[in-house]
TrEMBL record:
One of its GO terms (molecular function) is alanine racemase activity. Signal peptide: none annotated. Keywords: Isomerase, Pyridoxal phosphate. It comes from Photobacterium kishitanii. Residues 8-222 form the Alanine racemase N-terminal domain. CDD domains: PLPDE_III_AR_like_1 (cd06815). It holds the Pfam family Ala_racemase_N. The lineage of its organism: Bacteria, Pseudomonadati, Pseudomonadota, Gammaproteobacteria, Vibrionales. This is Alanine/ornithine racemase family PLP-dependent enzyme. Its cofactor is pyridoxal 5'-phosphate.
Length: 368
């Protein structure tokens, strides 16, 4: 049965992870590796563990269930759903939390299953997603005291997140705020906070600039090792694998989507007839470039959005997409493309995320 193929280079992923670990170690920072873009693929999780990672993070419990055979701690990256607490305890060793009700439920279930579960208490420093609001210090302190009072759970650390919902960047200022909260907690509790998790891959830009706030010692990283990109200034980093061709910033030759041509023809570049909207109710404008050679590919928007796919052959351009067709211009390509040939694309993060979610694409893991 035909499916477009997504080739994932696990060797390069491992080597990028080793580079990330080395870079973070310079600042005394450890990391857990976020595997969610790969939809829980055990092969990618194993690659980063082989690189030296000891905690894998996923945002869905059913993805953690896929990797129980991997020798590492498993962390639920998204706050637990109360209705799946039993599986949260069964398949994860750690989870991000900010709700008293959920913390109590985790403790009760961990006692039933006879295990210990770590809580990373989230503090919202302004991005307005998960976490106790940073100005409500007493609420933070009381939740930590609650965690310490309950059996079968423990405080793994405190953390925050940036640049996901509210677009708030990690800065020296909000980093110092998190450090101040940690130091105040340590005084009031009379003991150290185990770790302070200062965000995700966007936080790396503070290291890149040499302005990393002292006292922050942990990150939850995905994009850094997966694409080798510094995401604030948007630049490719030395010593990492990423795109080696001008196919669009934020792409990587570590992830190649290959799709088969199902039609080749030469047609006008402007539709003939009265125009309305496309299959997704969007109006369109077309530039008249005359008659040009084009091809139809056997994948569409229900597989992966074409605007995150960049042709490896830079003489090919994308024209558009319907639910199960992608149209490309091949007029300038030096390849003599025919029906049955395959066209390859490098993927950006969004395209990789969507490609890994669909059942319409098959994985191929490679070391090449």
């Amino acid at each position: 049965m035909y499916k477009p193929t997504l080739k994932i280079n696990t060797r390069k992923l491992k080597e990028n992870t080793q580079a990330a670990i080395k870079d973070l170690n310079k600042f005394g920072v450890s990391m857990m590796a976020v595997n969610k873009v790969f939809n829980g693929a055990p092969e990618t999780a194993q690659a980063v563990v082989d690189a030296g990672i000891n905690v894998i993070a996923e945002s869905r419990v059913y993805n953690l269930a896929k990797m129980q055979h991997i020798d590492c701690l498993k962390c639920l990256l998204r706050s637990p759903v109360l209705s799946e607490i039993e599986d949260v305890i069964r398949y994860s060793d750690l989870s991000l939390n900010s709700e008293e009700t959920v913390i109590r439920a985790l403790a009760a279930e961990a006692q039933k299953q006879g295990c210990q579960h770590g809580v990373l208490l989230m503090i919202d420093l302004g991005d307005l997603r998960e976490g106790v609001w940073f100005e409500n210090y007493d609420d933070i302190l009381q939740l930590i005291k609650l965690i310490q009072s309950l059996d079968n759970i423990y405080l793994y650390g405190i953390g925050s997140n940036f640049n996901c919902y509210g677009t708030v960047l990690p800065t020296v200022t909000n980093g110092d705020t998190l450090v101040s909260i940690k130091e105040r907690l340590e005084v009031d509790l009379g003991q150290p906070i185990p770790l302070t998790s200062a965000g995700n891959c966007t936080s790396y830009h503070l290291m890149d600039k040499g302005t990393w706030p002292a006292g922050l010692d942990h990150l939850r990283m995905g994009g850094l090792q997966e694409f080798g990109i510094e995401y604030v200034d948007m630049k490719y980093l030395d010593d990492y694998h990423h795109s080696h061709k001008d196919v669009g910033l934020a792409c990587s030759d570590m992830y190649i989507l290959s799709a088969e041509i199902i039609e080749v023809n030469a047609k006008p570049t402007v539709p003939v007839g009265e125009l309305g909207v496309d299959a997704f109710l969007n109006p369109k404008e077309f530039e008249d470039k005359g008659i040009r050679k084009r091809a139809l590919l056997a994948f569409g928007l229900q597989d992966v959005p074409f605007d995150g796919c960049h042709p490896v052959d830079d003489k090919i351009s994308l024209l558009g997409q319907t639910s199960d067709h992608t149209l490309i211009d091949i007029e300038d390509s030096e390849q003599q493309l025919q029906v049955g040939d395959c066209v390859e694309f490098e993927l950006d993060y969004t395209a990789l995320l969507m490609a890994c979610q669909t059942t319409g694409i098959k994985y191929q893991f490679t070391q090449e």
